[in-house]
Amino acid sequence: MSTQPELPKKVKIVEVGPRDGLQNEKEAVPAAVKVALVDRLSRAGFLNIEAASFVSPKWVPQMATSTEVMASITRREGTIYSALTPNMQGFEAALASRADEVVIFGSASEAFSQKNINCSIAESIARFESVARAAKDNGLRLRGSISCAFGCPYQGEVPLDAVADVVARMRDLGCDEIDIADTIGVSTARKTQAVMQVAAQEFHVDRISGHFHDTYGQALANIYASLEVGVSIFHSSVAGLGGCPYAKGATGNVATEDVLFLMNGLGIETGIDIDQVVDAGQFISQHLGRKATSRAGNALVAKRAG
Ligand SMILES: CC(C)(COP(=O)([O-])OP(=O)([O-])OC[C@H]1O[C@@H](n2cnc3c(N)ncnc32)[C@H](O)[C@@H]1OP(=O)([O-])[O-])[C@@H](O)C(=O)NCCC(=O)NCCSC(=O)C[C@@](C)(O)CC(=O)[O-]
Fold first, then answer.
1. For residue 304, what are the contacts with CB-CB under 8 A and spacing of at least 6?
2. Interface confidence: ipTM more than 0.90
3. CA distances for 257 relative to 44, 202, 254, 277, angstroms
């Protein structure tokens, strides 16, 4: 008789659409539209929404409205609103904007680190030290994000040791949560488990999150594979929005509607209302003038229409 691995009974879905999802849009999305999106997502029940990014507007112009967005959203009690902060300049802006969580973002790939944040991995960790200290001093949550943990658009393979090393460094900085990110969506299920297991040797598995882009259509399989090894936090973007400005060809994050459909089917609690997420996906897709890429979202819309 075969025994199946026990899956977590409950997961946290971190909605990253307003940041990771929109950051790569060529046309400026008005702050009011971003605010309306975040508010819809808050009402749908997310406990964590990545709403802003305090990076150089020359590097990522779409995120230049982050202060305005954070000032205008309606905050739901109990929901963590996160912001990316590559350095102290970003941290000060996040603090002033009343972010609940700041995200330092590094990479397991040297090449990607240079392209994305203009410094080596070691330099980035040194830069993050002051941000981490300031987060603790100000009582903010601290999250560490590790790009290219499963492969890099510039250097190709990324060794497991490199992932373990950055996880340990993020842990030592005092991160409350660490994201293991498949920036270009190249991982497959067994590889995902190997990487997650290496990460879990360095950090508590229940505070590791899986951040999967769906470039090769593997994201849901990678999420299921991660569940099997005890990961219970996942990032996703409503309507499957997204792509990274420094990873050409990378498509969006896995669509939130698809992840919710999977979790609902598995009987895993999320606390999120899928119908409201579908509505939010339709709202932003209409604004962007294209169809949502969420398979479950589009199927549910078609079903509603009869
Ligand atoms: C990190 C830097 C700033 C270094 O960029 P740099 O040019 O090395 O920085 P610098 O300190 O020399 O500053 C240069 C200029 O940027 C300004 N500046 C400096 N810092 C800030 C700031 N915080 N906010 C606003 N402005 C800032 C600074 O004031 C100065 O302005 P100037 O004097 O030329 O007018 C730059 O490389 C940058 O902003 N990179 C952002 C890259 C980015 O946002 N990438 C996308 C997000 S990561 C991602 O998507 C991956 C993830 C997390 O989703 C996981 C995954 O899927 O892999």
1. none
2. yes
3. 12, 31, 9, 7
* Pairwise CA distance, residues 278 & 300, whole Å: 8
pLDDT tier for residue 248 given thresholds of 50, 70 and 90: confident
The one-letter code for the residue type at 258 is D
Neighbours of 152 (CB within 10 A): 24
pLDDT band with cut points at 50, 70 and 90 for residue 4: confident
Q: Looking at the annotation, which residues are catalytic?
A: 244
**Using 50, 70 and 90 to split pLDDT, how confident is the model at 244?**
low
Domain assignment present for residue 7? The answer is: no
Domain count of the chain? 1
Distances 229 to 200, 259, 303 between C-alpha atoms, Å:
9, 17, 34
pLDDT surpasses 80 at 111: yes
Residue 48 located in a structural domain: yes
CATH number of the domain where residue 202 is located: 3.20.20.70
Residue of 50, 56, 112, 150 with the most ligand 1 atoms within 8 Å of its CB, for mutation: 56
Closest C-alpha to ligand 1, atom 40: 117
Q: Is 89 in the pocket of ligand 1 (CB under 6 A)?
A: yes
Q: Is residue 2 part of a domain?
A: no
Residue 131 belongs to domain spanning: 12-305
- The sign one gets for the Cα dihedral 230, 251, 144, 202 is positive
Q: Nearest to residue 49, comparing CAs of 12, 87, 89?
A: 12
The C-alpha angle with vertex 15 and arms to 279 and 193, in degrees rounded to 5, equals 125
Of the candidates 245, 85, 152, 191, which has an alpha carbon nearest to the alpha carbon of residue 210?
Answer: 191
User: Which residue has the CA at smallest separation from atom 25 of ligand 1?
Assistant: 56
Note whether 296 and 39 are within 8 A (CB).
no
Residue 265 lies in a domain: yes
**pLDDT (tens digit, 9 = 90+) per residue, 268-299?**
999 999 999 999 999 999 999 999 999 999 99
